[in-house]
């Protein structure tokens, strides 16, 4: 039988240094020459099973100590090198494994340094928010992933694209869909471009929602999708053909820095175009006014989902035909931000959207229910906030449902014009006190506080304890 050989030189050296003995002394105890031990520590000779057993018996070492924590250290290093500042520096993971093996202490130091860097970056972001609220330019240049560039560009500008909206409205008129928009788009795709739409079962397309096969000229949709989501998929495919010039012109106007960012933005604009086709601007604007912006009624009128109708409300900014300036925020149950948009750009500096007391977080405890409230910021600005959970594609019996939550809000001055805010506007005592984020909020005694404010020192009084987890002076 072949003898198992292990190269673990750096770990042997670490154990020897921990014992405080020289190579000569350890070699004598193991019954080998100092030069051979030196080769072992430099990974030029293997550590055999016999030597491992002798190490364990002579120096009372747990054999597991020779295994170390290479796996976890290498995993953390891999995470570090996915950062935009370092991505591409190391093409594969083998070199990181070698670093964690040969220099574990240096690797741990690198991990600590990166954690400190991320913490300081978070603090700088929070300070930039404070300066922005005070009216100072606090832009910080940093390496960004293409998706971050796209998100930043769309979130900072109005969620309205005039060229696409006008073209989508004209396309809708050409289709003359009557009561069956999905059928009209399917017919147009087949007659004008030879594209046939088919719905496939889960086992045939387990991981995709939509796939276009250029060879057979067929557009496949997953049966997991609800009817309104299937409609958006075929509308998006049609808009990428019919509104190609308008989408390209809008992309040129936005001016992204890379091809990857431009590709991601093209998808977002096609998604916007699909909603514009499903809910033509003029008809949707008129219906929103008549329904007092009741999203449920708009869903029934246009046969769309809550998420689709709510997102469309944030785009009502056509000159001469504007609606209330709504903004929206979508998160998952862990609080990760998925999408932000606004009729005038997302109000990051004024509203933030990271307060734990927002009803968007409470929505997960009441799936499918609409929660409405008026919230007040520290500067006395008030917002009407409406939140509801959203369901992802239909899941199988053993699958976990993908559920997110959507918040749509506007200035509380318009609460009386909106179905959800009419009764709230008459109850000033029900106003919820919130902040932009815990690190930027100085409200005392907040039971929901998750972090201390940057602007105040911690209250370290042994004689007094406040209601908040993080007391401050």
Describe the structure.
This protein is α+β, with helices and mostly antiparallel strands and 473 residues long. The protein has four domains: 5-68, lambda repressor-like DNA-binding domains (434 Repressor (Amino-terminal Domain)), CATH 1.10.260.40; 72-118; 145-278, Arc Repressor Mutant, subunit A, CATH 1.10.10; 292-436, Beta-Lactamase (2-Layer Sandwich). It is 43% helix and 13% strand. It contains 17 helices and 13 strands. The strands form four sheets. Strands 9-8-12-11-10-13 form a six-stranded mixed β-sheet. α12 (244-254) crosses α13 (259-278). The protein starts with a strand and ends in a 40-residue tail after the last strand.
Brief account:
This is Short-chain fatty acyl-CoA regulator family protein. InterPro entries: Cro/C1-type_HTH (IPR001387), HTH_RamB (IPR026281), IrrE_HExxH (IPR010359), Lambda_DNA-bd_dom_sf (IPR010982), ScfR_C (IPR018653), TransReg_Diox_bact_type (IPR050807). By secondary structure, this protein is of the alpha+beta class.
């Amino acid at each position: 039988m072949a003898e198992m050989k292990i190269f673990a030189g750096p770990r042997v050296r670490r154990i020897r240094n921990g014992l405080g003995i020289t190579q000569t002394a350890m070699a004598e105890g193991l019954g080998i020459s100092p030069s051979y031990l030196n080769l072992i520590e430099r990974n030029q000779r293997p550590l055999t099973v016999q030597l491992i057993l002798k190490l364990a018996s002579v120096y009372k070492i747990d054999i597991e100590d020779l295994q170390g924590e290479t796996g976890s250290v290498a995993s953390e290093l891999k995470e570090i090198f996915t950062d935009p500042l370092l991505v591409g520096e190391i093409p594969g993971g083998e070199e990181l494994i070698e670093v964690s093996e040969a220099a574990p202490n240096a690797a741990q130091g690198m991990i600590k340094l990166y954690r400190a860097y991320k913490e300081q970056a978070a603090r700088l972001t929070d300070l930039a928010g404070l300066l922005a609220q005070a009216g100072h330019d606090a832009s910080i240049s940093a390496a960004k992933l293409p998706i971050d560039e796209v998100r930043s560009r769309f979130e900072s500008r109005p969620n309205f694209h005039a060229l696409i909206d006008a073209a989508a409205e004209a396309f809708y008129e050409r289709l003359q869909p009557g009561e069956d928009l999905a059928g009209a788009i399917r017919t147009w795709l087949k007659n004008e471009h030879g594209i046939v739409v088919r719905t496939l079962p889960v086992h045939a397309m387990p991981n995709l929602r939509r796939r276009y096969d250029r060879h057979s000229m067929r557009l496949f949709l997953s049966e997991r999708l609800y009817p309104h989501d299937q409609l958006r998929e075929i509308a998006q495919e049609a808009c990428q053909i019919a509104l190609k010039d308008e989408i390209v012109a809008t992309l040129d106007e936005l001016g992204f820095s890379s091809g990857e960012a431009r590709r991601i933005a093209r998808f977002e604009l096609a998604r916007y175009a699909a909603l514009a086709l499903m809910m033509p601007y003029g008809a949707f604007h008129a219906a929103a006014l008549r329904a007092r912006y009741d999203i449920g009624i708009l869903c029934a009128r246009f046969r769309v989902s809550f998420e689709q109708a709510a997102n469309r409300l944030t785009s009502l900014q056509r000159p001469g035909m504007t609606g209330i300036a709504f903004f929206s925020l979508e998160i998952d149950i862990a609080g990760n931000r998925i999408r932000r948009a606004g009729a005038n750009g997302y109000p990051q500096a004024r509203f933030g959207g990271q307060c734990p007391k927002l009803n968007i977080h409470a929505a997960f405890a009441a799936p499918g229910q609409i929660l409405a409230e008026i919230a007040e910021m520290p500067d006395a600005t008030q917002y009407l906030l409406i939140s509801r959970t959203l369901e992802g594609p239909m899941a199988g019996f053993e699958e976990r449902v993908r559920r997110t939550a959507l918040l749509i809000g506007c200035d509380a001055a318009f609460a009386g014009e909106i179905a959800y805010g009419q009764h709230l506007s008459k109850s000033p005592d029900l106003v919820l006190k919130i902040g932009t984020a815990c690190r930027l909020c100085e409200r005392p005694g907040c039971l929901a506080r998750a972090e201390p404010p940057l602007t105040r020192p911690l209250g370290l009084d042994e004689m007094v304890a406040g209601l908040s987890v993080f007391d401050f002076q």
